Amino acid sequence: MDQDKIKKLRQEIRHHDRKYYVEDQPEITDSEYDRLYRELEKFEKQFPSLVTPDSPTQRIAGEPLKEFKQVAHRVPMLSLENAYSPEELLEFEKRIHRNLKPREVVEYVIELKIDGVAINLEYERGVFIHGSTRGDGVKGDDITVNLKTIKSLPLYLENGEGIYLLEVRGEVYIDRKGFEKLNKEKSRNGDALMANPRNAAAGSLKLLDPREVAKRPLNLFVHGIGHREGINWPTHYSALEALKHMGFRVSPFIKVVRNMKDAVKVCKEWEEKREKLGFEVDGLVIKVNQFTQQGVLGSTTKSPRWAIAYKFQSKQATTQLKDIEVQVGRTGTLTPVAILKPVELSGSTISRATLHNEDEIKRKDIRIGDRVILEKGGEVIPKVVKVVESVRTGKEKVFAMPGHCPVCSSAVIKEEGEVATRCENVRCPAQVERRIRHFASRNAMDIDGLGDAIISQLVERGMVRDYTDLYSLDKKSIADIERMAEKSAQNLIEAIVRSKETTFARFIFALGIRHVGIHAAEVLGARFRTMEKLSHSSLEELEAIPEIGPTMAQSIFRFFRSKDTSKVLARFKKAGIKIAVSKVTKAQKFGGLKFVLTGSLDGFTRGEAERLIEKLGGKVSSSVSKKTDYVVAGHDPGSKLDRARKLRIKTLSEKEFKALWK
Ligand code: IVH
């Protein structure tokens, strides 16, 4: 009975998902949909054994991955040969006829070439089981959990039970609106902007946390099939029609023509119309329609002989790079910006273009004074594609990223493995608004009533220069702010005063140390218990904490070594911040942590060390597993140390071990 009900609910939700996300024709309101969804969630909670992986509730699956598994494609994912002119298309047609019987009629299907990321989807008996990137064409990354977050991807095919196996190929992309929104958000946060929708889609699919992927406006068009068992179709077009019936979003504006001359006409039409589309296309794809003819034509190792991509001319212009300016974003990222001699490019005048970061400038060897080629696809911010080296005079200057922040003059940092150069100064004026916003946020100091608009005004009027200034505000000066009623001013002051009493973890989080989220702040709070101890902790001590990785440890260490941080901390102290120290007794110190000992220690016998760990609430086991938190390695450690390294488990020297509870 319950099983039937759940099944029915799922079918209903699937139907509405398809209407909304695939066909763009919703039949019910959002709130009606939410009601159905919540009902299903409730049932599944009640009967967890009835949850199936293809249930609409299972789109965002659990924990972040460590890395993607590699999967081999059943049929290689080839790429396409490119044509850049009508002549090349007619040449392609001639080749086809040379390889088929004389005077055989050949139909072509013309589709948009979606500028996104190629993916492969595998369905077994109508259920989505795997999805992967193209990779090198033979094997790609298993991105199943990320793909499941795309609402227009059917997890279950309509009438698909009889299809033993079906590979569907398509393109994941972000449309123009979604891309703009994403970049606006990035710019608001002061993060480096993404170059184009394709990069944004590729970057999103590479994220290891499906919950983050679900926030990206990814969408999907499918344009073909790969391996299939238990089903076949006579033509590519009929396969696409069938995919549509199964619930896929098949790319729109598909046309069938009977010769290449007609295909050329269609290509020319699109050359004009393409910018009106809501998503980016970089050309058209022309495919032989009959599968038997495709089979006769076959493929080379790189591309099929039955299809070709007609690529649009990308819009380019050349101009002079007059200078490179460095901007500091709200998160402290330094972004080099090209200052250009103004030039026309597809309807607008361009005088600036982002150069993204230092590595990008080095890779393209862009120098000040160079003549550069700019490119613009659709509405995307123009980019500097390359330098015209042949016209260099020798007077061009090589650009170097400044060692100091152009806004606040403090030394900048480039973390290992990262491309971005950043200013981490807590008092940098470029970042002050964002830092205050973070400081006041719910999980941090939780200052009610300190919204974005008020923060902007406080900063603009010079009333706060860093977050410590919040504690010197008084009601009168706040009430001066536009649209601030006396009552709200009073409430805000009270909220600020209230925030002084807080937990250590919240305060650490509020400081806005790069990489330190609320969880890490809690770990640090429990481990050090006072600001005095935390701010004087050594790099080794920080690195020895299991939840704190080396990058985070470095960042915390740097943060507390900065002069500006010391100033800020002194002012907080003066303002009277009271940190509630939770009573962690020594017995809880190792609460729940699992230790493994290897080799001999100087200060203790094995038994003494074991008893000590247990006294502090920890557990000792004899073998290293994924569940081990620490491996303490003395002299002549055994194979346990190798295993710990292999499993990436934190290892401690005797000294580091002692530092843990002292
Ligand atoms: S058919 C054998 N159709 O363009 C390759 N590809 O180099 C069959 N693409 O990686 C590909 N839109 O992901 C095909 N309508 C479309 C497409 C399309 C975009 C991508 C595809 C492939 C690349 C071709």
Compact overview of the structure:
With 662 residues, this protein is an alpha+beta fold.
Would you kindly provide a written description of the structure presented here, covering whatever features stand out?
This protein has 24 helices and 26 strands. It is an alpha+beta fold and 662 residues long. It folds into six domains: 2-58, Orthogonal Bundle (Helix Hairpins), CATH 1.10.287.610; 81-311, D-amino Acid Aminotransferase, Chain A, domain 1; 316-392, Nucleic acid-binding proteins (OB fold (Dihydrolipoamide Acetyltransferase, E2P), Beta Barrel); 429-499, Orthogonal Bundle (DNA polymerase, domain 1), CATH 1.10.150.20; 503-583, Orthogonal Bundle (DNA polymerase, domain 1); 587-661, BRCT domain (Rossmann fold). A hairpin with a 6-residue loop joins strand 19 (412-414) and strand 20 (421-423). Helix content is 36%, strand content 22%. It binds 2-(butylsulfanyl)adenosine. Residues 78-80, 111, 113-114, 118, 134, 171, 223-224, 251, 285, 304, 307, 309 line the site of 2-(butylsulfanyl)adenosine.
